Amino acid sequence: MTSRRILVIGVIVGSLLSIAGRETQAAEWSAEPSLGVRGVYNSNLLLTAGPHEEVYGNWISPGVKFGGSVENLQVSGRAAADFVQYYGSGNQTFTNLFFPLSVKYKIDRELLNFEGGYTRDNTLMGELLQTGVALRFTQRNLFNLSPSWTHSLTEKLSAQAGYQYSNATYENGLSLGLVDYTTQGGSGNLSYKLTEYDQVQVIGTYTNFSAPQARDLQSDIYGGMLSWSHEFSETITASLSAGPRFVTSSQAIAGSTVRGSQTVGVGSVMLRKSWDDASIQIDAGREVNPSGFGLLLQTDRFGVTLSKNLSERLTASVNATVLLASSIATTDRSSPFPDSRYVNMTPHLTWKISQWWAVDVTYAYARREVDSINQYAISNAATVMLTYYPPKFTVGR
């Protein structure tokens, strides 16, 4: 992360914090540290279709959640890292970093909000789960920021305007066929509370996708969306959204600039049911995602998540996800990108040994398929993690 990006975050956060300068004496600040140690087995870490080796690894994961609040200001975030060592298949060593930050300032009818941060992860940990396409295994640096302003026009009607920026870079990217990219744009919406249980939104968005290393690819994505959410009861909620995305692109090919356009329908649906000791969520959707391959991807997602408290200290959960990915034709001469399918199922068991200690046991099954070239890869992974939670630090009220 460059010093310029650090400065941008610092200016935004510092401005919001200074707004509440006279109220800091009534502030309450807290920090919740943790330290996790895990052992990992994976039968196919890189999700390759050809010959591969089994790998074993160990992770050391320190972290701290922090937060603070005054009368009108709330700040929350996390600083965490994974120090990873894998044995077998090249004895890989890498470090993941996570610095998400959220700042909210509310006064009268106005809400100023900032979401952003910095993430350093690997492509099979982050981008695969978003797009459904497995990239070459390498470290990704992702910087993002998203400030927004919300104004309550009436008790039921509010308006919001926001700006979104993200920048992704890849370690040794060009040698692996990956290119850095930047997305930025804006959004606006009107939200109206129809009834005590129903809310509708009208949303407009614009995003620019820029990948200079991919023959100076530039894509403009315009779109609109209608969204509806409903509370059937205190334990059953649902939401539905749909709208078009209009994609226009230009790219330098064979000494000239070629252009193209495509329209993609996007949307999502979610249904959640909860009980005193369990919950289930079903969701599906389609979105346009940027990719390190230097193109835009259409990703269809289907997911189910179940969670059950077996006792006061024992919780079981399972998550199943199917991602179908296909490329969006950026220009009339774009090379076709094969459709792919990614399936992941992850049962998880958490045992809270005491106030300070917890054990997590996870199994993960993954399958990646590329039908046009009759290629598939299967991975089986198991993780055992022991986490220590030191006492929470609190200063203030």
Helices and strands in order:
Elements: H1 3-19, E1 28-42, E2 55-69, E3 73-87, E4 93-107, E5 110-122, H2 127-131, E6 139-152, E7 157-170, E8 181-193, E9 198-211, E10 217-231, E11 236-253, E12 256-274, E13 278-291, E14 295-309, E15 314-327, E16 340-352, E17 357-370, E18 375-388, E19 393-396
Antiparallel strand pairs: 1-2, 1-18, 1-19, 2-3, 3-4, 4-5, 5-6, 6-7, 7-8, 8-9, 9-10, 10-11, 11-12, 12-13, 13-14, 14-15, 15-16, 16-17, 17-18
Can you tell me about this structure?
The chain contains 2 helices and 19 strands. A hairpin with a 4-residue loop joins β17 and β18. It is mainly beta and 397 residues long. About 3% of the residues have low confidence. It is globular and about 65 Å long. It has an 18-stranded antiparallel β-barrel.
Rg from C-alpha positions?
23 Å
Gap from first CA to last CA: 35 Å
Structural class: mainly beta
Main beta-sheet strand count, sense and barrel state: 18 strands, antiparallel, barrel
The poorly predicted ranges are 5-9, 19-25
Question: How many strands in all?
Answer: 19
How much helicity do the residues have? under 10%
Brief write-up:
With 397 residues, the protein is mostly beta strands. Helix content is 6%, strand content 68%. It has helices at 3-19, 127-131; strands at residues 28-42, 55-69, 73-87, 93-107, 110-122, 139-152, 157-170, 181-193, 198-211, 217-231, 236-253, 256-274, 278-291, 295-309, 314-327, 340-352, 357-370, 375-388, 393-396.
